[in-house]
Fold this protein.
Amino acid sequence: MGDEKINDDYIQRQENLWIIHCENFLRKGKIPKRWEELPQYIKTERMRKYYVELKKRLEP
C-alpha cells in the first residue's frame, strides 16, 4: 500500500469523523464551526459539498 493510499484513507476517516461531529452538534441544537474556522487539512471537496448542504439545511 502506498503512502498516498494511506493518506487518502486518513483524510476520508477525518472527514467521516467531522461529519458525525457536526450531525451530533445539530441534534443537540448547536451549530458546528463555520467553514472558515475549519482546520486546513479538512477543507476537502467532499467537506465543501457537505458544508454547502449544511448551510441550506440551517437557513430558515
Q: What stands out?
A: The chain has a mean pLDDT of 92. The chain has one domain: 3-58. Residues 3-27 form the longest helix (25 residues).
